[in-house]
Amino acid sequence: MDPYQVLGISPNASDDEVKHAYRTLSKKYHPDANINSEHQAEYTEKFKQVQNAYKTIMDNRKKGFTNQTYGQSSQSTYQYQGNDQAAFQDVAAFIQAGRYQDALHILEQIRNRSSIWFYYSALAMNGIGNNATALEYAQTAAQMEPGNLQYIFLVQQLQAGSGQYRQTQQTYTSPYANMANCCYSLLMFNIFMSCCCRCY
Questions:
Q1: What is the homologous superfamily of the domain 84-194 according to CATH?
Q2: Maximum distance among all alpha carbons in the chain?
Q3: 6-31: buried (b, 16+ CB within 10 Å) or exposed (e) per residue?
Q4: Distance of CA 111 to the CA centre of its chain
Q5: How do residues 162-178 score in pLDDT, each as one tens digit?
Q6: DSSP one-letter code for 71
Q7: Membrane-crossing residues (predicted)?
Q8: What CATH class has 3-63?
Q9: What's the DSSP call for residue 39?
Q10: pLDDT, tens digit (0-9, with 9 covering 90-100), for 135-158
Q11: What is the model's pTM?
């Protein structure tokens, strides 16, 4: 949903105009102002949409994004500054928000096609429904870094034809984030097995 449409303003609106629209609509749809209204549930939902729209617009403006449209046809004016780590963080945030085209737009600007580039590209491609390319990218990431369990898991999920790939209880941050926990678990398992074997 286009946040500018929710607030009833143009994408070219100034920050003050955005804030004015937000305050006006928040006051109108605030749950406390509609306690006995027959449209209370509808207004409460509208109030949540207004809150989310305002947050989305202001967050994007702080990051320098000035999207004119939202959804699958969205095009961001994001300019890659040569910092891969920062770019991948923005890619992860867009994927988490379901804004796959924006994620792909950033990825296109990164020249270093590392394993993590193929991993995020696979997630974004899968998000827009291009599952064949998503699988190809995921396999490339896994081939470049055979020991990365997160890459392997993504390949398996895509090969299983499970449609939209989802990670449970995890944001799309660096795939290395959970490797330490995984290694620790394997280490503890090996120690446990060694102790058991010595008992016989």
A1: Tetratricopeptide repeat domain (1.25.40.10)
A2: 76
A3: bbebeeebeeeebeebbeebeeebee
A4: 21
A5: 544 444 334 444 554 44
A6: S
A7: none
A8: mainly alpha
A9: T
A10: 999 999 999 999 999 999 999 999
A11: 0.48
